[in-house]
Amino acid sequence: MSKNPGLTVLAGPTAVGKGTVSTYIRDNYPEVWLSVSATTRAPRPGEEDGVHYFFKGREEFESLVAEGDFLEWAVVHGQNTYGTLRSTVNQAIADGRSVLLEIDLQGARQVKEALPDANFVFLAPPSWDELVRRLVGRGTESAEEQQRRLETAKLELAAEPEFDHTVVNDDIRRAADELVSLMGLIPHPR
């Protein structure tokens, strides 16, 4: 079965650098459309609807779920709901854009159910020790939360064989260029 070059799903363990690689691609590869998620959480200062997230009320979000309007969705940390609207992804692909979805493993599995011909890329750390260093080095989680995330990361790393490709995030620019290449685009010369 041939893969759909229009849609690439990027997933990997916590603290592997999915957001950093995606931001690099957004800033350096304008031909890639980075999917914007919908959420029930309130906007933070400076966030714009339709740019950073599509901000939805809980009732509206639940209605969209019931209608099957999400490629994937999940309740995060038992509080707010996040999801990828099928319509925005389909419109970007119809417009000829290369779409990148940066999501968690659970979301990637949901997208695989809905769109098995998408291109699935696993972002891996150079080593377990480096993943631990990155997570602890962020300083954004308590020791208890770090331990919980590391336990989750072990399960997430075990999912690597579910993906079409693996990109090792040993250098942000190199990893981004490899990902862009896997999307069927030509990396920019440096």
Describe the protein in words.
By secondary structure, this protein is α/β, with parallel strands linked by helices. It has a single domain (7-182), classed as P-loop containing nucleotide triphosphate hydrolases (Rossmann fold). Helices cover 40% and strands 21% of the residues. The longest helix is centred in the C-terminal third of the chain and has 15 residues, at 143-157. The chain is globular, with a radius of gyration of 16 Å. It starts with 6 loop residues before the first strand and ends in an 8-residue tail after the last helix.
Q: TL;DR of this structure?
A:
The protein is α/β, with parallel strands linked by helices and 190 residues long. It is built from seven helices and nine strands. It has helices at residues 18-28, 58-66, 86-94, 105-114, 128-138, 143-157, 172-182; strands at residues 7-11, 32-34, 38-39, 54-55, 70-76, 80-85, 98-102, 119-124, 165-168.
